[in-house]
Specification:
two-stranded antiparallel sheet; 59% helix; 10 helices; elongated
């Protein structure tokens, strides 16, 4: 029945007005949909959805939704964790700017999510599924993902392996810290009778 109604009204194609959307509680439906999104990007796209009166577009969106539901029933949820909004970071680097370690870490997390999504697409029969076709258009960047993972330890921390220069600097710092501690220990031993606590400890970034 729905199919015939859509076909009958295809030529008229009235744009849904504010009153119709209010009667349908469209905004409430969209808000509820957005709450189930896995990422800020997904929520943004949900909230941008507007009714469409073009029959072909409506049928395509219905087919996409139907295929997504079938995949969820067949295999469960897709691995969507790690998909975050990196648009500002990408735009800054494209303009020749520099991003922080934390931003680079989020880029790496995003690339990992892309790799996991691509791996769920079956080798056989993928071309018959709309959602799998869309996922297959994603391009993993495994080399960049591994380089970021090997270099960034946290929002404000780099691994020693981030670069040979950094590894060398940190080795020299650790060696200097060891020399300072050895010198302080010698001084403490020499004056142990005059000291209440004859030990050297590190408090914050200072030896006390």
């Amino acid at each position: 029945m729905t199919k015939y109604i859509l076909e009958a009204t295809h030529e008229i194609r009235p744009e849904p007005d504010a009153r119709s959307r209010k009667l349908l509680e469209y905004d409430k439906i969209i808000a509820d949909l957005a709450r189930h999104a896995h990422s800020s990007l997904g929520r943004e796209r949900c909230l941008e959805l507007v009714p469409d009166s073009d029959l072909a577009t409506v049928q395509q969106r219905q087919a996409e939704t139907d295929d997504a539901v079938k995949i969820l029933l067949e295999r469960g949820s897709l691995p969507l964790s790690g998909i975050n909004d990196i648009r500002s970071s990408v735009a800054r680097t494209a303009a020749g700017g520099v991003i922080s370690a934390g931003e680079l870490l989020r880029v790496g997390t995003f690339l990992g999510a892309v790799s996991r999504l691509v791996r769920v697409v079956p080798l056989a029969g993928a071309g018959e599924r709309i959602v799998y076709k869309l996922i297959s258009r994603l391009q993993p960047h495994n080399t960049l993902e591994k380089r970021i993972d090997g270099a960034i330890a946290g929002d404000d921390e780099l691994h020693d392996t981030a670069s040979p220069a950094l590894a060398s600097i940190r080795r020299r710092i650790r060696a200097a810290q060891g020399d300072v501690k050895d010198s302080l220990n010698r001084i403490v031993r020499q004056h142990s009778r005059a000291l209440q606590d004859a030990i050297v400890t590190l408090r914050g970034d200072r030896y006390v």
